[in-house]
Design brief:
This protein has 16 helices and 13 strands. It is of the alpha/beta class. It folds into 3 domains: 25-221, TIM Barrel (Alpha-Beta Barrel), CATH 3.20.20; 223-273, no CATH class; 284-345, no CATH class. The strands form 3 sheets. It has a 7-stranded mixed β-sheet, with helices on both faces. The longest helix is centred in the middle third of the chain and has 17 residues, at 181-197.
């Protein structure tokens, strides 16, 4: 599929959805999913120019593009920066050749280091590196070596997250031997301490940033903010400010089906309106991932529900040592962050 036809479909799709966010200012764009860095710089430039003509954009808008470390992606870095991309997220995953091979990655550690150098020379001053831990056969020492190599590249942001086995993957069919829960906790604790002493502040379960470089896209998502999704397989969340309803939608995944959908003029496909219990759980699923939790007023702002709707659950979470609160905010304790699933279970609908 050619860049031009797909880019045109993206802009058509956006045109149909602009009315959903009328009067709002766009503060971030995240170009991700699949391999967006296979697009030419010209296609990204056309896309961003189209966005700016259709929506009110903040002067300092964050524009992130996901890229792989391979040489093909690196060829485009300078063109992306020229097009208006100001934040690059590079999917390193690991610097261990054996681990990369087990993960099915086609790049090696040298390519990852070269990619960061190429990005710097292209003018990127805001770079994120994705790094996994809990890999097959990994121990705390090897995990720390991996993380040290990432830190030595001096990125502004590091996404440090545990490997999860997803359905419909090779690992799901043939599960590898992974570190035990006890070893995982040791790897995580050592990694978090290393990141902190290296100048990275944890602001979300798996997100660490130098001061001033927290990802706006991430923050909006974890704070249960709205976002428009365009593109094959994209999803979005929109709050109807007049009716007080929160709606989610999912776009067809197949590129050919997406182009047909984008030209049809449809505003929202497969809309799901969230119930009150869904709103409570989804808000908590997101907000409690943030290290500093959430301002209490944000719950009503994002869900339209009064805080008393969850007061009993908040009290119970406090009693169990998972949550702390004051007059203005609620945030997970260290135990709450470690046992996040148990904390979230308190806010699940009761059958």
């Amino acid at each position: 599929m050619e860049d031009a036809s797909y880019t045109e479909a993206l802009l058509q799709d956006l045109e149909h959805k602009c009315s959903l966010v009328a009067g709002r200012e766009l503060v971030s764009i995240f170009i991700g999913g699949g391999t967006p860095s296979l697009f030419s710089g010209a296609a990204i430039k056309r896309l961003l120019k189209g966005v700016r003509t259709k929506l009110a954009c903040a002067p300092d808008m964050e524009v992130t593009l996901e890229a792989n470390p391979g040489a093909v992606d690196q060829e485009h870095f300078a063109a992306y920066r020229d097009a208006g991309v100001n934040r690059l997220s590079i999917g390193v995953q690991s610097f261990d050749p054996a681990a990369l091979s087990k993960l099915g990655r086609i790049h090696g550690p040298d390519e990852a280091m070269i990619a960061v150098d190429v990005a710097r020379r292209a003018g990127f001053e805001n770079i994120n590196l994705d790094l996994m831990y809990g890999l097959p056969g990994q121990n705390p020492d090897r995990a720390q070596q991996d993380l040290n190599q990432a830190i030595n590249l001096q990125p502004e942001h590091i996404s440090y997250y545990q490997l999860t086995i997803e359905p419909n993957t090779l690992f799901h069919t043939k599960p590898p031997i992974l570190p035990t829960d006890e070893r995982l906790w040791e790897i995580e604790a050592v990694g978090h301490e290393l990141l902190q002493t290296s100048g990275y502040r944890q602001y979300e379960v798996s997100a660490f940033a130098r001061p001033g470089f927290e990802c706006r896209h991430n923050r909006n998502y974890w704070e249960f903010g709205d976002y428009l999704g365009i593109g094959a397989g994209a999803h979005g969340k929109i709050t109807d400010t007049t009716g007080g309803q929160v709606r989610r939608y999912q776009i067809p995944r197949a590129p050919e089906s997406y182009i047909e959908y984008a030209s049809s003029g449809s505003t929202l496909p497969q809309v799901l309106t969230l119930s009150h219990s869904d709103l409570v759980l989804e808000f908590m699923l997101n907000a409690l991932r943030l290290t500093h939790g959430f301002p209490l007023g944000l719950f009503q702002l994002r869900t339209g529900l009064p805080l008393r709707q969850i007061q009993l659950q908040l009290d119970l979470a406090q009693e169990r040592g998972f949550l702390e609160m004051d007059e203005t905010a609620a945030w997970p304790t260290e135990m709450g962050r470690r046992f996040l699933n148990e904390l979230l279970a308190i806010f699940m609908p009761q059958e």
